[in-house]
Amino acid sequence: MNLFDDDLMSMVFDENIPATELLLKIILKRDDITVISVVGQREFQNSVVGGRDIRLDILAKDSTEKYYDIEVQRKPEGAHVRRARFNSSMMDSRMLKAGQEFSELRDSYMIFITHTDIFGYGIPIYTVNRYFEEIDIPFNDGSHIVYVNGSYKGEDAIGKLMHDFRCKDSRDMYYSELVKGMKNFKEEEGGRKIMCEAVEKYAESYAEKYAEKVRLNSLLDSIKKMMTNLKIEAEQAMNVLEINDSDREILQKRLR
Questions:
Q1: DSSP assignment, residue 144?
Q2: Which of 120, 140, 148 minimizes the C-alpha distance to 29?
Q3: Residue 148: which domain range?
Q4: Do residue 89 and residue 183 come from a single domain?
Q5: What does the alpha-carbon distance between residue 17 and residue 211 come to, in Å, rounded to a whole number?
């Protein structure tokens, strides 16, 4: 495993202020960031019934109360541009309390570190900010989205940072702030135990999701066969199979 595995990455950066400051300073090209808190695997629940929840790999806050969501993604679909929009909105919705003015909303940064260059332009960092199209000046709403090309291999600071993310052995890494966390979870007894438990938990979760996928696929196949052989509608087939409401909603979408 390396830092592109979100479980390991979250553990290495959880409450690790020096490593988080290093990462943000390099990616955002700023030296004035002072991180005051950082947590790994923070879940945000959607206030809308049935709405989608999100689990952030890393949530950090700096001394000016700016918030940073840092995500690692091996697959391009995990860093879809509309996911960045959704994550940003979920962060923003939690920043203001009742009675606060909208002008008090702090800046937020949605940072995706992707295993490959998902946009294909060969540059290390893609920074996204809103602009007025007609006059080409910043909108300055405080929302920032950044994509980091994890396949970049330059000799500059970002190239070395991405090199460290790809490393499986802490002895090959450049930055001491990352070496300490990697050694703890991959080489030291206490950290290795935590890492093994996380991997086992992930395997159990994956097995449950896979079993659920197989179950729904089997139901879907049965419905389609009944519709074809008996010349009946999907709703009638589901009634015969006594499919519950939650499964019915999922299967109806897949039949469209």
A1: E
A2: 148
A3: 6-187
A4: yes
A5: 39
Largest interatomic CA distance in the chain: 69
What's the domain count of the chain? 2
In the chain, alpha helices (H): 6-13, 17-28, 81-92, 157-166, 176-186, 189-230, 234-241, 245-255
User: Is 174 within 8 Å of 164 (Cβ atoms)?
Assistant: yes
Average pLDDT value for residue range 158-175: 94
CA contacts within 13 A on the Cβ side of 103: 0
DSSP conformation letters of 99-126: T--GGGPPPEEEEEEESS-SS-S--SEE
The overall pTM is greater than 0.85: no
Residue 256 has pLDDT above 90, yes or no: no
119-144, pLDDT tens digit by residue?
Answer: 999 999 999 999 999 999 999 999 99
Q: Are 95 and 59 in contact (CB under 8 A)?
A: no
Angle formed at CA 144 by CA 141 and CA 146, multiple of 5 degrees: 165
Say yes or no: 167 and 49 in one domain: yes
Residues 6+ apart with CB under 8 A from 2: 8, 165, 166, 167, 168
Whether 145 and 88 have beta carbons less than 8 Å apart is answered as yes
- Mean pLDDT score across all residues of the chain: 88
Please tell me whether residues 234 and 180 are part of one structural domain: no
Phi/psi for 37 (5° steps) reads -155, 145
The answer to whether 39 and 58 are in contact (CB under 8 A) is yes
